[in-house]
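User: Could you write out the 3D structure of this protein bound to flavin-adenine dinucleotide? I've included everything you need below.
Assistant: Certainly. Input first, then the structure.
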Amino acid sequence: MIIIIGNGISGVTAARNIRKKSDEAITIISSESKYFFSRTALMYVYMGHMTFEHTEPYEPHFWKKNRIDLLHARVNLIDTTNNKLKLSNGNSLPYDSLILATGSKPNKFGWKGQDAKRVQGMYSKQDLENMESSTNGIERAVIIGGGLIGIEMAEMLLTRNIEVHFLVRENGFWTGVLPKQDSQLIMDHLSKHHGLHMRYQEELDEILTNENDEAIGILTKSGEKIDCQFVGLTAGVSPNIAFIKESGIETNRGILVDRYLRTSAKDVYAIGDCAEFREPVPGRRPIEQVWYTGKFMGEIVSETITGSPREYNPGHWFNSAKFFEVEYQTYGDVRAKLSEGQEEFVYQHATEEILLHFVFEKESRKFIGINNFGIRLRHQVFNEWLLNDASIEEVLIDLKIANFDPEFYTKYEAEIIDQFNTQFNTSLTINAPKWWQKLTIS
Ligand SMILES: Cc1cc2nc3c(=O)[nH]c(=O)nc-3n(C[C@H](O)[C@H](O)[C@H](O)COP(=O)(O)OP(=O)(O)OC[C@H]3O[C@@H](n4cnc5c(N)ncnc54)[C@H](O)[C@@H]3O)c2cc1C
């Protein structure tokens, strides 16, 4: 019997892939929902673009057909000596292999009032339901923490005409991740949204509550009082591992795993947001709380569990997100600050919200990574370039093959090369290599 705790993208991917190779009984347990849903789509339910059922990629009969049992329950403890789980309803369940895919939870930093009513993060189905009822008819909200989930929450609230005050501790948006110019582009974009008040270098001191323990405002560290009827806590997420710690499995910030995703306990694996590598894969972080990472870990662990152990080797980093209307993708290793020996080339359109931030090695000219905003570039192409150690010049002259967006093809490419030529005193011209024409674009 294989048991998976967590029915998010990582747990469900593991189950589906194990079933392709094995007939062993599989049970997925989740306390959040019976059926897998797309966490990244939760915001669209609140915004009225889809119903919750639309976020479920598989019909209920899928699970029966694939002989994957679903259990809507909470696991309280893992007995790693006897390979047994204890559930909150008093039942226990034996396992031969156990996969921990318990995800994350929103950070709380001990603020006064953080557990009051109308104060919450935005992570789970229950958070969505709570947000729906807590924000019904309200006028003003405060969001704490300047990351991707905070932006989503702001976008959600603005669609209901709720005024949003967004407190960001740093002096710019997502400055721990984005280089200065990139962050500035997003800040400029955010400043255009009516009803959104960005407050940089401002921190939460405490949440004020009434006699019913409901949020009625906040105090900032600079002493300002902001009246509001809802407080969103979006200052990052942490691995959801409290009960795993109590079970004696080795943890740090997350559940410690080796490159085969094995934990310190026999027959127990961890994947997705909750896993932390003892030794991170070079160029990658020890914990990566993103969709693609969870999906890939689910695929890898399925191979190990079905008898073909495979090391986790995710290749080059990539990610994508949206800041209101501006789409963002990143491929390779672009940090907030250049490392020693690195150089950058930033193309920014004069009037449109389009920015491409290339990073490369100064001496060897090796392309290291790109952040792109306002246009879409193909993952497959950038992955090839990164795998083949392409130079910045090769990337630029062939850029059109990475283009996802026909508008970009005709409009910006020549201008990008021109700017590069001017800045670096080169004379590059546009090219399209033959090897590319053989590749299938997915
Ligand atoms: C609002 C939002 C937007 C996002 N947008 C993006 C995006 O655009 N791009 C991107 O790459 N990533 C995004 N992410 C992150 C991405 O969704 C996560 O990295 C991913 O969903 C994590 O998947 P997982 O399978 O590791 O865990 P989860 O999806 O968190 O699943 C874990 C499940 O385990 C259950 N569980 C935990 N403990 C127990 C227990 N003791 N007993 C029973 N069940 C338990 C939990 O309730 C949960 O259902 C977003 C996240 C959020 C919250």
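The mean pLDDT is 94.
User: Perfect, thank you.
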